[in-house]
Sequence to fold (703 residues):
Amino acid sequence: MAFAAFATTTSEAEQVPRRKSPVALLLLLPGILYLVLFFLTPLISLLLTSFQAPSEFGDIGQYTYAFRWENYLQVVTDYLPHILRSFGFALIATVLALVFSYPLAYFIGVTARPWPLAQSLMLVLVIAPFFISFLLRTLAWKQILSDESFIITSLKAVALMAPDAHFTGTPAAVIFGLTYNFIPFMTLPLYTTLERLDLRYLEAASDLYAHPVEVFRKVTIPLSMPGIVAGTLLTFIPAAGDYVNASRDFLGGPDSQMIGNVIEANFLVLQNYPAAAALSIILMSVILIIVSIYVKRAGTEELL
Amino acid sequence: MTTSAFAAQGADLELVGIQKRFPGFTAIEHLDLKIPPGSFFALLGPSGCGKTTTLRLVAGLEEPTAGRILIGGEDITGKKPYQRPVNTVFQSYALFPHMTVLENVAFGLRRRRLDEPVAKAHEALRLVELDHLAARKPQQLSGGQQQRVALARAIVNRPALLLLDEPLGALDLKLRRQMQLELKTIQEEVGLTFLHVTHDQEEAMTMADTVAVMNKGRIEQMGAPEELYELPKTAFVANFLGQSNLFTGPVVGSTSEAIAVGVAGQRIVVPTARAHRHVGEVTIGIRPEKLSLHLSAPAVDPARNTMGPGRVIDVSFSGVSTQYLITVPHVGTLIVFAQNMAFGPVAEEGGEVWVSWDIEHGFGLEDEPADTPRFEADTTTRSIAAQRRASLITELEEV
Fold:
């Protein structure tokens, strides 16, 4: 569903003449079949599960089809802090990733333009972390940031951290992990728009009395809006549903559990499938609402 | 800050000893230029001659390697583009695609925190007759309309100096002529100093009060369009600004009024006042439209130079006039423009003809006679690349 947001931004922008031809439909067929099979089917199944009621005489984890909408009420009252925390963390991580990625993408896409080789090299460096599973990388961060690690002991030695304080297990650690893991997803779309940025607009703006800060605010940012929207969506959506960084096995702790962890626990540990399904549907709908408002407000259609 | 108020009128621009070197080549050798306030000044030259670099230096988009830039007597060499009382109409227009036409025009006013930016922007749009399209986005306008918006966006700021970087280059011929007239009218109306960069000699001559012809990073000649056309100083100017027939030969006689040059055994007389060199090997020239075509040898007339006989090798009709190419033995090919006063060509291809012209119309160049007597203005990209390469090689050899 979240993909609908991407679809509206791109299809309206690229004004490709539309022609109805049987060949085009034929080419679309595999994609449609794929979506029906692997997207629509699980979605319907999830929706049905979310309304299930426990079997009257069954064991734990046995449910029958029903229309128990109270499931939703139940999970919202039980897990409201987790839901709020998820979107809070995702929002902070998205903003941080944007703050770190924009200068990086600008440097690669604009400043380094005269040196294409350096440009590709830096892009490879941005993508390089993907060569290692992100589970392993997150686990590595757990080690690096553990209480016995060099960084934490040093911070404690210079009294920047209290002697009995921890970093792993705190909300800050989860946000750190989210930010770190999604920086490439933010940098790449930003890079693609900034790489195409016509510097003559910036010259024109400075010729029209705009000092560098104003040039950036009034021209560079609006012109790179498509990249900002794409990057923030690619970061925010998966970050809101992420359950790895906040997991107790990785960077999270009891006070930093996100909705993804709750869904995981309900599905795999508590075997409360309706609750997990209801939470998933809620997560999906809230993301969809946030994203559609965001895309509408950002108004990127006219830019591409 | 100099940009805080509207300039009442244009200011003068002075370039003192400007030099601009890029890694590998010199764009501007040594440039001294003074543009009086309120004038329409054109920098004319082939692509790669340094004219756009000059403009970018004035706008502050490039920094000179050496020299100073003064506007209204104030040294602005070290100032950033946004601190200079200068606006540019860019070749690509560079209209902000994310803003409406109105917001584009109001952009400069808003940056300077001036009162009533919207009202002033509307006024500027009315001047270019585009106020009805104020709410549109630039990409919804035609090329000519975009050009006018770019002009409005620049003049609304009442800059002391307006820079025009070949803004008409992307327009078709008819629209270009129309815009040239409009631009000239607007310049007279608002009284700003215009510095126009172009490679279109006709555009420069119709619009500008003063034209400077630039070649290879230097100004070859500067003056009023008529002066430049009628009395070119160098072979480059003679051929870049219109066409010329040039002859090289030794001075065989001279009086206080005229010098005589021997060209392939014929005496060609040029007034002394119109010749820059009076002894030795000189190059003299005559404009093609000043030549008269004769089908038989003309009677000897001390007030006219005669050349011939020659053979017509090409006749091309262009409506108002007909262009004849004539080869004269030992002299070369002459170009003659003849007004079409009668139906059909006066001379047939392959026919024997003579040409003559009023002595007063000839001119003598300042140039050292070059190895190639017929210096053609070579403006192709390939030749510019070759020139760059040659200058690079010599530069490398010096090191």
Summary: Residues 1-14 of chain A have pLDDT under 50 and may be disordered. Chain A touches chain B at residues 198, 200-201, 203-211, 214, 218-219, 222-223, 225, 302-303 (CB under 8 Å). Residues 72-303 of chain A form a domain with the MetI-like fold fold (CATH 1.10.3720.10). The longest helix of chain A spans residues 70-111.
